[in-house]
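step: validate -> pass
step: tokenize input -> pass
step: predict -> running
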Amino acid sequence: MKKLGLFLASISPGLFLIGYNIGTGSITTMASAGASYGMELILPVLLSCIFTYFLIIIFGQYTIVTGDTILHSYRKYFGTGFSAIVLVSLLISEWVACMGVMGVIVQVVQEWSKPLTSSGEGFSPILVTAIFGGIIYWIFWQGKHRFFERVLVVFVAIMGFCFIATMFMVAPSAETILDGLVPRIPRDKSEMLLLAGMVGTTMGGVLYVVRSILVQEKKWSIKDMKLENRDAAISAGLMFILSFAIMAAAAGTLHVNNLRIDNAIDMVNLLEPLMGRFSVTIFVVGIVCAGLSSLFPIVLLAPWLISDFRNTKRDLTTTSSKLLVLFGVLLGFVVPIFGGRPVFVMIVSQAAASIVTPLILILMMILVNKKAVMGDYTAKLPRNILLAFIILFTIAIAISGILGIF
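step: predict -> pass
step: emit ->
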């Protein structure tokens, strides 16, 4: 048991990224893709997870070698303007995600709970939001990084079990899965938006900015390079497995019955007749754990990113940090109070996140090629070729996101 605890502690940065990455944004985009197109879009997900593996390593190694985090470095070497653009873009994307994530959780729980209430309307959306928002803020109030890591490990473990178990109950055929690995061009703007959303949630630039912060928090040094590589492999590998499981569950049930997901409640309404109450309950538990494991890092990001930008100590006990986190929690009430389509909100937020990613990667490519910054760890030709290819890939996805949104 002690060895397991030490192992989990050694890969806690990767688990943190999984908790952030596989949230209701991933669930809604992967489930929507699986329902609408079966496994046709699994190849972009696989590519984005492979690219994410390499980018996690690159951004982590940059901080290991230089000791600097990303936004501070961008401000230091490229000026306040570029760094501010990245900061504002990431903050807006994350705050929009707060609304969408909580909206999805609440609608799913309300729909699932309808048979449990005498009125048949399910649990009160405001009450559910207050409970989950209170849990998130209570976790934050503990103020200890080690405690955050342990909570996320629990959320990620439950989420992973639920989605993988659901996939095995309704898995599509091997032929369908292999067909999804055949490259194809998006057929319409809806598919473009979904594609951008899926890649945005897997390769969002904020992921790499946060990676830098986590590596600095972990105090990894040059001697920890192998540990950093292992952590990156586990993180990216589990991201793909969970994304695959969600898409496969939707493809094996909704797509074969020509059903689509337009709202969060569709995931309960449409899946229950096909999978049964027990299977849907497991799926709902997975959605809730995914939402909470994603919401917590999201609300933490505002004070973390601002501290990174200003190059100040990441102190979550300050009044400004508490107010920023509270603001993020309160944004969760927007959809339950004012209504809206949280699935669409989530897809748009993930697509928007993909738009700033090329800028983040281009600036990093410049930095890792500076001998004065990286010394003996300056990027070699193979790494530069790979980075250039990934940047072109993210630009193509960003264009798809823009076309899909408008």
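step: describe -> Residues 129 and 333 are 6 Å apart (CA to CA).
step: cleanup -> pass
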